[in-house]
Amino acid sequence: MRKAGPGTSAALAVLATAVCWSLASWWIRAGNEPLPQPWTAPALTALMSPVLLRAGLRVRRRMVDPLVAARTAVLAVACVHTGALLVGWYLGQALALVPDLVGQRRTFFVLGLLGTAASIALAAAGLLVQRWCSLPPPDDPPDDLQNDPREEPGDSFGQ
To answer: pTM (2 decimals)?
Structure first.
């Protein structure tokens, strides 16, 4: 499994923000109302971070079997990528509303900022739990993998 890095996540968030801001600005300039944002979306995004941290703490304390730890690591990577994409979604929509913050648009703007904060927390929790779930590198390779006495130097399969 490949780890999700903070640089990749930041690049994904910036790209998603640019795309979402462009599309939302175009939508609003075309005379349409901004897309409605329910308050439940940022709230549920905010609730996912503590759930992930709790699962990660169980792995960190070695209270689970290896299969559960692997699943938690995969969930952490998914949360990093999801958090980065949601940062772009919420921030892009909020930035598109900046030129005209009146009435319900102000509410959508605040919900966009709350969603952005919750998404950043989700991505950060994913990065932390991913780190907790990683195994330390081995000090020395096992003896049976260092040198195989049956194989002579230069004698490899297919040559």
So the answer is: 0.80
